Amino acid sequence: MGAPTKFRAMSPTQRWQAVLARDRRFDGAFVYAVRSTGIYCRPSCASRRPRRTQVTFFPIPEAAEREGYRACRRCHPADVIGGDPAIALVREAARAIAAGARPRGDARRLTRAFKRVLGITPRAYAEARRLDRFKQELKRRKQVSPALYEAGYGSSSRVYERTDAQLGMTPARYARGGNGVGIAYVTVATVLGRLLVAATERGVCRVALADNAGILEQDLRAEFPNARVVEDKSGKLHGWVTAILAYLEGREPDLDLPLDIRATAFQRRVWQELQQIPFGQTRTYAEVARRLGQPTAARAVAQACANNPAALVIPCHRVVRAGGDQGGYRWGVERKQRLLEMEVTSPSRQEPQTPGRVRTVK
Ligand SMILES: [Zn+2]
Questions:
Q1: If you measure from the C-alpha of residue 31 to the centroid of ligand 1, how many angstroms do you get, rounded to a whole number?
Q2: What protein residues have CB closer than 5 angstroms to ion ligand 1?
């Protein structure tokens, strides 16, 4: 027997060694995808080896394509015909599912092959495909509802069930069997206009700024059409609101509140990266992209900032354009300007540790 053909029997280290060795025996056993280029290859591809941290392995080409990777034009990884009939069966079925069709053939045999090659059932695979389409659609649009329908979900309550564990940063049950999740909110006056803080029982789901409470409430209800949205009269949001107000006065540099928000995988990475930027400092969109290991993704970073649901808590105002331009802000560029000024002049400001690389405004 030659090399093992079972992807799942190999450790990531074994796969990586096969890639480093350009070992042809593993062609057909798996493909590797490179995040920085968006391309996937067979193990023996003659192209330059990527950094290990950039690499993700997939058992079949269709699974890499599912994640948005394109086949390498040099090694044509999708054309490899492996010796394992289960892999061929799974690949054919995966292509049918991707095309929106039902896979043909004996259902039990197909299920066995799927479990062996991909570790999941054909049904779970089809569900995951739909979730991918939904996430892609979400990236393109801000509004949730049209994305749900374009991804083939019948009702919005169902998608939240399905995606609950898979989309959120700390996932919310935005709907449970048709019952809306409870969202409490308050609005208070601040130096930057009206501030809204909204939360589920798990954490803050929205922090927003606007000129008046009416706009904030309207936007909140539009964002969560199936939720029970009520103004909080009990004072349970008081602690979080107090922390945010203290931050706005420059007295609370580390705004660390529990979040309950939806995010695509990329948004989550961007937002987590933003939370690493110290109070009083800024980064450019390109710097954030580089830190994520995706140097060409500056525009996608800007897009993720524009979709930030939690102003201030996720400090997207600390991301600016290169060359000193402060860039856009979901809640108004004037507010961004004032926030940056407040942080820079606050006694809570932390001095940049590497002054050459870190930009501060003014
Ligand atoms: Zn290649």
A1: 9
A2: 41, 45, 47, 72, 74-75
pLDDT tens readout for residues 148-167? 444 444 333 333 333 333 33
* Ligand 1 centroid to residue 72 C-alpha, Å: 4
Domain ends where: 221, 248, 275? 248
Cα(53) to centroid(ligand 1), Å: 17
Residues 173-230 have pLDDT tens digits of 433 322 467 889 999 999 899 999 998 877 888 999 998 899 899 888 888 877 888 9
Q: How far is CA 4 from CA 58, 231, 356, in A?
A: 15, 60, 50
Checking 130-133 for CB contacts under 8 A at 24+ apart, the result is 131/162, 131/163, 131/166, 131/167, 132/66, 132/67, 132/68
C-alpha pair distances (Å), 56 with each of 15, 36, 107, 258: 10, 11, 30, 30
The verdict on 312 and 241 lying in the same domain is no
Residue 22: left (phi > 0), alpha (psi -120 to 50), or beta?
left
Query: SS3 of 227, please?
Result: coil
Whether 350 is covered by a domain: the verdict is no
Q: Full-prediction pTM beyond 0.70?
A: no
Residue 17 pLDDT > 90, yes or no? yes
Taking the centre of ligand 1 as the mean of its atom positions, its distance from the CA of residue 130, in whole angstroms, is: 27
Q: Taking a C-beta distance cutoff of 8 angstroms, is the pair 223, 206 a contact?
A: yes
**Which residues are known to be catalytic?**
41, 316
pLDDT recorded at residue 2: 41
> Between helices 122-140 and 85-98, what is the axis angle to 10°?
40
Number of domains, the chain: 4
pLDDT reported for residue 158: 34
Bridge partner list, 71: 40
- Domain holding 145, by residue range, is 84-154
Nearest-Å Rg of the Cα atoms of the chain is 24
Distance (Å) from CA 41 to ligand 1 centroid: 4
> What is the whole-number distance in angstroms between the Cα of residue 229 and the centre of ligand 1?
51
pLDDT tens track for 269-321: 899 899 889 888 999 999 999 999 988 999 899 989 988 999 999 999 999 98
DSSP-derived secondary structure for 104-125? PS-HHHHHHHHHHHTSS-HHHH
